[in-house]
Amino acid sequence: MKVILDTDPGIDDALAFVLLKAMPEIKLQAITVTHGNTTVEKSTTNALKLVELLGMQDIPVAIGANQPLVKALSVAEETHGDTGLGHAVLPPPTITVVKENAANLIIEIVNANPGEVTILCIGPVTNLALALLKEPSLRKKIKSVVSMAGTIHYPGNATPSSEYNVFCDPESFDILLHSGIDLTIVPLDVTYQCLFTKDHVARLKGVRADIAEFIDRSTAFYMEFHAEYQGIQGCAINDPLAAAILVKPELVTLRDYYLDVELHGDFTTAKISADHFNATGNPPNAKVAMEVDVEAFMDFFIERVKLL
Ligand code: RIB
Ligand code: CA
């Protein structure tokens, strides 16, 4: 499966990098980086560090959008730390980004592989929106998009009603929602059931020491955030779940919904509206993961990471 990873590393993004390395079924074509958990400069440095940690140097990394389409930049350093990788420390990268920017690299790869590329979006979708605006024909050439985004019934983690990736750039998410692309959404409703704990860290015995240490130190910060800000024990590994369903779709139960995103709310901007009873009369525009086999996912994550 040919995949472009669009990402804002970010601690849970980093765990998705680790899992993607442990899923040979996935042929990563590129890693495109966006603003989100931190600035795009820091996210890009983190992506390059993770590529070197995981031996993924054959995969091109492209720097992308440094700000959302319309609203001002948001970052979440209380969640992911000043560097974006929590307490983890990785050596400065010795590799660099390719010359193309993220949107142009997405256009180039999709045009070269029409109908074959899935884009895994685990951050704000600004890069994809820019690519679609620049080359509208891409809508028919992208095989599918899987996006960790939104929340349907679960409380928002950015505002009371919005999830962070959509909150960062709701206009871009609106473009994706109405692009006609085969779209799967992985919302907080399922990702916040997948809480990675110190017990899971303990199960990583036997994993390559530098990777195990990275996971332990990065998630330690993430767990501190979840405890202090959300009263949650453990940390929601949102992005690895979105990655996992690429090879194990049976981990989740998908429901077809027509989704819209609020762009002009006083209190609800970036809220996702899911048309459960077809009140709009519109056909569904997304498959939404509404249930997850938590134990099966956590076991899958641990067992795959132990292969590294
Ligand atoms: O709301 C969770 C999402 O926002 C995750 O992708 C996390 O990395 C942040 O980007
Ligand atoms: Ca992310």
Provide an overview of this structure.
The structure is a single chain. This protein is an alpha/beta fold and 308 residues long. It has one domain: Ribonucleoside hydrolase-like (Inosine-uridine Nucleoside N-ribohydrolase, Chain A, Alpha-Beta Complex). The protein is 38% helix and 17% strand. The protein contains 13 helices and 12 strands. The strands form 3 sheets. The protein has an 8-stranded mixed beta sheet with strand order 3-2-1-4-5-6-12-9, with helices on both faces. The model has no long low-confidence stretch (mean pLDDT 98). Residues 8, 10, 12-13, 36-37, 122-123, 148, 157, 163-165, 238-239 line the site of alpha-D-ribofuranose (RIB).
Quick recap:
This protein has 308 residues and is of the alpha/beta class.
Dominant shape: globular
Number-wise, the strands total: 12
Q: Into which percentage range does the β-strand content fall?
A: 15-25%
CATH class equals: Alpha Beta
Question: Overall mean pLDDT score?
Answer: 98
- What's the helical proportion of residues? 25-40%
Report the uncertain regions: none
The computed structural class is: alpha/beta
- Main sheet record: 8 strands, mixed
Number of helices: 13
Instruction: Give the number of domains.
Output: 1
Rounded to the nearest angstrom, the radius of gyration is 18 Å
